[in-house]
Amino acid sequence: MKEVCVRAFAPATVANVGLGFDFMGFAVEGAGDRVEMRLSRNEKTTIRLEGKYGHMVPGDPSGNTAGVACMALLTAIGSEQTGLDIRLEKNLPLGSGMGSSASSSAAALIALNRLLDDPFTVEELIPFAMEGERTACGTAHADNVAPSLMGGFVIIRGYDPLDIIKLRCPDDLFCALIHPHVELKTSDSRRVLRKDVPLADVTRQCANVASFITGLFRGDFDLIGRSMHDILAEPKRQQLIPGYELAREAAISSGAISCSISGSGPSLFALCKGKDSAVRAASSMQNALHQAGIGSDMHVTSVNAPGARIEHSCQ
Amino acid sequence: MKEVCVRAFAPATVANVGLGFDFMGFAVEGAGDRVEMRLSRNEKTTIRLEGKYGHMVPGDPSGNTAGVACMALLTAIGSEQTGLDIRLEKNLPLGSGMGSSASSSAAALIALNRLLDDPFTVEELIPFAMEGERTACGTAHADNVAPSLMGGFVIIRGYDPLDIIKLRCPDDLFCALIHPHVELKTSDSRRVLRKDVPLADVTRQCANVASFITGLFRGDFDLIGRSMHDILAEPKRQQLIPGYELAREAAISSGAISCSISGSGPSLFALCKGKDSAVRAASSMQNALHQAGIGSDMHVTSVNAPGARIEHSCQ
Q: Considering the entire predicted model, what is its pTM?
């Protein structure tokens, strides 16, 4: 055990990616949670909460996604080590649609894995992070934790067995991510969805998914844009997000190739060709929301952003 | 008008391609209908029916997909020419799941377009061929006519406007196509499908579609194989096809990477790595069906097979 203390960062994520309901996601550059961790001589794990949103998450390890994920890992390897000293810098807002819970667990797992001399590959950490998601939202889904850990754009093909496919997107594919300061409960976001989908709509959704992936491989931005037409979630969820239509129109008018809901909202993301275009789209969206009396944060990211990583370690 | 008489061929097609229900299709090498056509001085169009299945299609141009498609084209350009002498060599069995109706209209349109000095691109002929499909089965769908005309593997992204995307598949992706000699009404094939699909199933289907397209672009045969898992049509339709499970098992045992239903059946297709593997899969499937007392025809094709083409023209 070389490291005594490590600091790790894991990025925010855009899950669903509009038409990839519950199976697509990508990492976001520059926004994320940070974890500093030491192995403790005590049996008990403690979490010290810091950062802008630290006061909003549980300090009890059994209720905090970082704690839950680490316990799942330690249990899996039958470790005698059960005590961890965790400092969680909680930078991502909860219920934002930016993968806040996933970011905490991903950062914690990367840190713990390093402290244990990397017994797992990054991909092998995903099931432990999914346990954090189960605690946070009731479902052990992977569409935030997988891109937060692995970085870039991922497809969750299936869960039994877990089958994650990472795609390299065109280098000039960027994303403007806007978090409007409005409250939206994930339970409300789920509730508005249809439980059953007419067969013709399934065909349209699948056809757009196939075309979207084709667009990514070809670097065909026009195809990416016209394929980004979600008929499952967006039509139902947009009504829950004040200012959504205004922000969307602003994004498209400013040159974005598409705009949809990040995760279950209220955050919005717009895909753009080039970083400059993404910066313009983000500003336009913020302005449109501002004029409607809605404050927001913005992030601009490559869709090939890096995943969770060790920032610092000391012996 | 240089040509007086042309002969054209258009291939059979595998529509749906398992998990691409109603939006994917590819052309089949070596099987298809043939049309010989002359512009007539009479106002009336006549169709002379030949070939193995000529006796099974209407000779009246308004009820024959070749005639309907040609009339749609002539009407679109406001042509004074209304009379055509058509000889239709009907080689594809009807109701086979091999795109029989589409093959006739595609061959006829390619011939007529040439006789008129090619006023349309091949892609622009698709809407006319779709009118043939409307006559044949009640729906103007494009998942057979598009690959029959254009060749190769296509995605029908949408109909309004018509948006067809052609993919280049891995060169060594081959298909074993088996037509079992059993009767299956398209109406029965439609009837067994669920009208509504549970949201979780939609996600699984979309995730497999995204992964399948990724597999095609990467030439990742393992991914192509494990993504080919249709939960919309196959579980319902396979029970209508005697010997389906036997043939499917024979295909997979012989090394095929996947096996599913072609179109609405009863034909089956197996995707294989390399032509030899496809030949082996086809033989195994035929043997399995034979042992169950079911005769069949087989075809082995590249998934990048050519589309409709002029075979002969004379001045």
A: 0.96
